[in-house]
Design brief:
With about 575 residues, the protein is an alpha+beta fold. The chain has a domain of about 170 residues: Regulator of K+ conductance, C-terminal domain (Alpha-Beta Plaits). The chain is about 55% helix and about 10% strand. The chain is built from 26 helices and nine strands. Strands 1, 2, 3, 4, 5, 6, 7, 8 and 9 form a nine-stranded antiparallel β-sheet that branches. Helix 5 packs antiparallel against helix 17 and helix 10 runs antiparallel to helix 24. It is globular, with a radius of gyration of 25 Å.
Length: about 575
């Protein structure tokens, strides 16, 4: 390999390390890597900036606007409520996964999951069924469904653009379904069969690793209040239902464990752990107030759960350091961390990916704002139950916009990009989305990452790294059937997807796939299509894909749960996609 190839290897390894350690968000890591390759001369300006001229980032931005309009109209929440059925068997799982996969084939996965999670959680509470039975299958179903169409996932849009640029032909709206449809059908069947058997009931304390989620909340004893000067037992804090006192923080030090005859004084900070509903009930106890003045400023408003996502600015920092209250117009009431009890002052706690926060929010809180999207995903509203309201005028505009994206490309009247732009114009003209709301609906991090990832893929190609790696794969599998070569290639794509992102994986592997196809006598257009399909299949970790992170906290999942369900799905996707491509050779 030449110097440029080694520089590219070093840059990609550094990017993987930064993502694995949580030092950078996916968007920042990909942009920084492409920038470094340009600075070191591996990329020239046209290649480094190729993503800015590519239609994929623009189409992705438009699809976010359309998905946001559908969500705001109330249609997605109404659909989510229809997913709920009785039981926990295969039919109950299929009732959730099949409609979710269908919806995500034309809509962004994130709003589909965001709307469905609180509905499934509450339905589980009403039916005494753990949400762990359904939430991970929901996430996986949306991932599967997104692979069906060109607009279902950014991965397909990017791969389609790369294929067109390489002279492999334009992809139609349903082009990915050639390979993805069998994978999706088999995947949904596997979900329905395996999920009831391998996902534990996290509501059952007897289940291994089960039990209710333990949230930690810090309450202050009101000076001169009804609890000031009483013992723990006299104050009624010894035998609370579903929550217990684990520490007392006072200027003289920390008291733990807390004896029943321990006296509590005004100004003491009491650390409780317990179920979220019981922890929240502590706010109503006379003589106790949430620790910190910011909670009082938000008095009388409602509560939401939020999960810290991959690449969040909160990761590794405390609430105090980041200025959480002023940043989000919200205050943290309680924290849950899977597999670990959180103790101490919440303001000093350094947050980790997957931490679930109970937030006290006011009218200024915007879950779709850039800061909120960069830090976490709001997954559950803990306020009073309400019947979803469908705003008919906005819903009609959203349906027309969605139909525009589907019907016009299928009829051959125009391409996907023009259809998406026209759909956004329909939404703005009908005032279903106001002009000032457009950018708020677009995930600019994803758009930037896609644009930069295209330049990153160019670096793999022009540096010669793609040819070198492709030659290695072909040489290692020489004499073996094409199926073996494809399995090796697609398995590498799946691993890379978990390490970086699906978009980065497909751009990095695209030039390698083209070279492998040429060296193995395979159809390069089908091999590239196979790469796009398996690059979407992020099933192995809770941080590999945003929807996997969204269900982590509410489903009370452990890493082993993702592996139990994700490994069979990943192996099936790789093997079936390879078989389909090889059969067409």
């Amino acid at each position: 390999m030449g110097l440029d190839a080694w520089v590219t290897v070093g840059a990609v390894v550094a990017m993987v390390a930064a993502l694995a350690r949580g030092w950078l968000s996916p968007a920042a890591a990909v942009v920084a890597t492409t920038g470094c390759l340009f600075a070191f001369g591996v990329l020239d300006a046209p290649d480094a900036l190729a993503g800015l001229a590519d239609p994929a980032p623009v189409a992705i931005a438009g699809l976010y606007v359309i998905a946001g309009a559908v969500a705001r109209s109330g249609l997605l929440e109404a659909l989510a409520r229809r997913l709920v059925g009785d039981g926990v068997g295969a039919k109950a799982v299929a009732r959730v996964t099949v409609p979710a996969a269908a919806a995500s084939s034309f809509l962004a996965n994130t709003p589909v999951v965001a709307m469905a999670v609180p509905v499934l959680v509450r339905a589980g509470e009403e039916r005494k069924v753990s949400p762990s039975r359904f939430l991970l299958p929901l996430s996986y179903a949306t991932i599967l469904g997104g692979s069906l169409t060109l607009v279902g996932t950014s991965t397909n849009l990017v791969a389609g653009g790369l294929a067109a640029s390489a002279g492999l032909g334009e992809w139609g709206l349903l082009e990915p379904a050639r390979l993805a449809l069998p994978v999706v059908v088999v995947g949904l069947v596997l979900l329905s069969v395996l999920a009831p058997r391998v996902l534990p009931d996290r509501r059952d304390p007897a289940a291994p690793g089960g039990g209710e989620r333990e949230f930690t909340v810090v309450m202050a004893v009101e000076p001169g209040g009804p609890l000031d000067g009483l013992t723990v037992e006299e104050a009624g804090l010894r035998r609370l239902d579903g929550v217990y006192l684990v520490e007392i923080h006072r200027p003289s030090g920390v008291v733990a464990p807390v004896a029943p005859d321990r006296r509590i004084d005004g100004g003491d900070r009491l650390v409780f752990v317990g179920d979220v509903s019981r922890v929240v009930d502590l706010q109503e106890m006379p003589g106790l107030v949430p620790d910190g003045d910011e909670h009082r400023a938000l008095e009388g408003v409602h509560l939401v759960e939020a999960v810290v996502g991959p690449g969040s600015a909160l990761t590794g920092r405390s609430l105090r350091e980041i200025g959480f209250r002023s940043r989000h117009q919200a205050a943290v009431l309680a924290v849950h961390r899977a597999g670990q009890r959180v103790v101490g002052k919440l303001g000093d706690l350094r947050l980790e990916v997957g931490d679930t926060l109970v937030l006290v929010v006011g009218d200024d809180f915007d879950p779709t704002g850039p800061e909120a999207r960069a830090d976490f995903v709001v997954v559950t509203d803990l306020g009073p139950r309400r019947t979803p309201e469908i705003r008919r005028r906005d819903a009609l505009a959203a349906v027309v916009a969605l139909a525009t994206v589907v019907v016009l490309p299928l009829s051959g009247a125009t391409d996907v990009l023009r259809a998406v732009v026209l759909a956004v114009v329909v939404l703005v003209a009908s005032r279903a989305v106001l002009p000032r709301q457009v950018w708020g609906l677009v995930d600019l991090d994803v758009v930037a990452m896609v644009a930069a990832a295209i330049g990153l893929g160019r670096a793999v190609q022009v540096s010669g790294l793609g040819s070198t790696l492709a030659d290695g794969i072909v040489a290692a599998t020489r004499g073996a059937p094409p199926m073996v070569t494809l399995v090796v290639l697609f398995a590498a794509v799946v691993v890379l997807t978990e390490l970086v992102t699906n978009v980065a994986a497909v751009t990095l592997m695209f030039p390698i796939a083209v070279e492998v196809a040429a060296g193995s006598g395979l159809d390069p257009s089908l091999v590239v299509l196979g790469v796009a399909v398996v690059a979407s299949m992020s099933f192995l970790t809770p941080v590999g894909y945003q929807t996997n992170t969204m269900v982590w906290g509410p489903g009370r999942y452990r890493l082993v749960d993702y592996l139990r369900l994700g490994v069979p799905l990943s192996l099936t996707a790789v093997a079936l996609t390879a078989a389909l491509v090889a059969a067409s050779a």
